[in-house]
Please model this.
Amino acid sequence: MSTQRPAPRTEPIRALNRIRIVENHDPLTEVVHKRHGIYLCCDRRIWLRRAVAAKLAAVQRSLPRGIHLFLIEGYRSLARQTLIYERFFHQSYAEHPEWPLNVRRRETNRMVAPPDVKCPPGHCTGGALDVTLIDRRGVELDMLSPCQDRFEECTPTFFPALSPRALHNRELLFDAMEAQGFRNYALEWWHYSYGDSGWAYRMGLDTCPYGAAPPPADYEMPTREME
Model:
């Protein structure tokens, strides 16, 4: 296991906007359920950049026997990202009617990457993904105890109050992903990326190879959103 762990911190939009995108036109490719031992969530179709999909297959090969990647989310179109963002933004009126507009915008940005800024949201590039681990029975490994009923409290990857088992499982995923060049967003244990602006920011780079990718010809907006 790695010994150095990143401190949880936000990734300021102004800093991400300074990352220069040098698009390399790596195409999107569909990830096939169970191919290379990678499982997909909820029978949804998932696309990633071709190099990202290849790196994910290498991650799977590195995992202990009987442990599988469980891919929850990959590419999103900008149109879909906009729908998700607007849903969270409008939901905040019911939960926090007292918030002024600037606070409402800031708090929504903490939950969902805004689609209307210079740097495209990671999922819209095909370089970001949400992932966890399952066992050979298809049961998700514990990533939450003892916070199963307080999910929002323990979203930072190395949340200090995790049980030893949950911490071990998060470290297993973290080390396997980062060994293949992915970088984790430290405030969300499930979110990793390669090649997008967030990845470049975490790497201390001033350029990245992935901008917003156009939807595949057969891309369909999911009927049920998952975050």
Observations:
- The chain has one domain: 13-208.
- The chain is about 35% helix and 15% strand.
- The first strand starts at residue 20 and ends at 21.
- Residues 78-95 form the longest helix (18 residues).
